[in-house]
Amino acid sequence: MDADEAVIKKRFGERLRALRTAAGVSQEGLALICGLDRTYIGGIERGERNVALVNIVRIARGLEVSPQVFFAEADAK
């Protein structure tokens, strides 16, 4: 994995954590809503997972946001 990839995954995970906590949802709660595993959500938030597009959409729907909000913050940095 190159440095750029690590930075992208870390920023995406940070954005997910910020959106999830702002929504008042736990990792486990979000996982249940999205049909994903809690450890997968945690791995994303820690920047350890390369998230598939379909899972980005699932997570966005679970948080009731547009998928683009995950990327808007990353573009600003």
Describe this structure in words.
The protein is mainly alpha-helical. Helices cover 71% and strands 0% of the residues. Helix 1 (3-22) packs across helix 5, helix 2 crosses helix 3 and helix 2 packs across helix 4. The mean pLDDT is 92. It has helices at residues 3-22, 27-34, 38-45, 53-63, 69-76.
Put the structure in a nutshell.
With 77 residues, this protein is mainly α. Helix content is 71%, strand content 0%.
The termini sit apart by 21 Å
Please state the average pLDDT score.
92
Give the H and E element order: HHHHH
**Morphology call:** globular
Q: What descriptors fit this protein?
A:
5 helices; globular; mainly alpha
Set out the fold topology.
Elements lengths: L2 H20 L4 H8 L3 H8 L7 H11 L5 H8 L1
